[in-house]
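sorry for the late reply, my laptop died twice this morning and i had to redo everyting from scratch. anyway the thing you sent over, i finally got around to it. pasting the sequence first so we're on the same page, its 241 residues, then the predicted structure underneath. double check i copied it right bc i was rushing
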Amino acid sequence: MRIPPRFAQVIAVAALPLALAACSPGSSGSSDSTASAKQPQAKNPNAGLVTGTQLKKALAPASVFPSNLSAVSDGFSDSGDEFASPASRDTAKPDCTKFENTTWLDVSGFKGGVSFAQGEYANTDETEEMVEEIDVFQGTTADTVMREIRAAAGSCATFTDLNDHSKVKLSGSTTSGLGDDAYTMTMTSGHWDNGTTLVAARVGNAVATVTSTAGTDNGAANAAKLAGHLVDSLKAAGAKG
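ok and here's the structure:
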């Protein structure tokens, strides 16, 4: 059963504080102005980061997906022009079943970035689907996200599916030549007609995540194609390292 995509409530970043020098009786305006000018300006942690509006344009068009898939009406969302406040990472043991969600980035302990965009395509009966998501993070958090995705995959080599209680096997490996860092995973179960391929690829501060069950190869070829398109789009959008 398809799990609805994440609709994040975006919180605008608070305005940078202004350094205001108080004027004491008898003091001159010129000396106060000089003192104010010497006050250090706080650095904007979102400076140069890509917004949700820009990320929306970086999502893959319908032509990248198999012809039997079409856009899911409620499967698209983005954070617009504002940046959300970064949330701290949940350090609890990863919930392996989250790998089966359409938006599975939170296996890393992070609910998402300060900006994001996502889209979903599926066939009529939703037996095949592909999901794309891009999240942008402050500082070096994107590196941490990739590291934690690998760690979660390592601890979830086998787990139990919540729907039919079947045994799910998950394996992953580093993918070379895809962005600054990439990791590909495959999930299979004896109760499934086809497996699922997941890809996480980092380009600077952005992490693109892909889910694919489209195709007879556990969705692998279509996942690789979609991930490659997202990486190229992020480079063109100027995702910073």
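The longest strand covers residues 181-189.
thats about all i looked at so far, will dig more tmrw
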